[in-house]
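Worked Example 4.2. Consider the chain below.
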Amino acid sequence: MDEKLEFSNRLRTAMEAAGYEPRASVIENEFNQRWWGRSISMQAAWSWLNGKAIPSQDKLQTLAEWLKVEPQILRFGEGVVKSVREYRQRWDEKLTYLERETVDAYLQLPAPQRKVVREVILTFAKVYKDNEDTPSSS
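Applying the procedure from the previous section yields the following structure tokens:
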């Protein structure tokens, strides 16, 4: 699906969840009451609502505050946010104290040494993966 259409669907859903009718005139009125800059036009609101445009980051934040939804969810959707949260959770839960200590030491190395360590780790990971993919001859 088109990114702009996905945004407009999330905008419509957020408006309905907040008790607003998903119409350009509602967006224009409610947004302009909260926006500190130059007012948006009915055409801009219509474009957001109908998959023709995505608002700039500062306007997106105003929309999110008005509709009481996280800006990143309004902009990118729950799937992306959930994926990032799961990645962070996995990182937090799976690393042991010694592994965290190793990562901290790695981060303190100068860039050229970090590059060498990274290449060594990636080489080990590739060899290990290649060995996992090769059927054993037992």
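The two ends are 48 Å apart (CA to CA). The chain has two domains: 3-81, 95-133. Compare this with Example 4.1 before moving on.
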